[in-house]
Specification:
CATH architecture of one domain: Roll
CATH superfamily of one domain: GroES chaperonin
Helix content: under 10%
CATH class of one domain: Mainly Beta
Number of helices: 0
Distance between the termini: 48 Å
Strand order of the largest sheet: 6-7-1-4-5-8
Structural class: mainly beta
Number of strands: 8
Shape: globular
Strand content: 35-45%
């Protein structure tokens, strides 16, 4: 059997999406420049993250896209020392990517 230090490749299954939340999403700034700590209570605030892997049945996003989801719907996992979040495709609320036509008039 191989040693415990060997790294195995991971294949995402079905409609699962693996995302990474950026470190800067912890604290926010108000329009006046006031820093709002990550521990401040905000009612049902959605979070943006970057897709790092996806299952074969995912159709609405691609690796590298930014996706919007509720932090209440997540499962955290550590892969190679990095904290990531596992979601189902149906838990995504929006996708932001260069290839998407600007139909809403909103931009990141």
């Amino acid at each position: 059997m191989a040693g415990s230090d060997d790294k195995l490749p991971i294949k995402m299954l079905n409609d699962r999406v693996l995302v990474k939340i950026s470190d800067k999403d912890g604290e926010r700034k108000s329009s006046g420049g006031i820093v709002i700590p990550a521990t401040a209570q905000v009612a049902k605030r959605l979070v943006w993250a970057t897709v790092v892997a996806q299952g074969q049945n995912v159709r609405s996003c691609e690796v590298g896209d930014k996706v919007l989801f509720s932090p209440d719907d997540r499962y955290e996992v550590e892969v190679q020392g990095e904290d990531l979040v596992m979601l189902r495709e149906r838990e995504l609320h929006a996708v932001a990517a260069e290839r998407i036509e600007a139909s809403t008039g909103l931009y990141l």
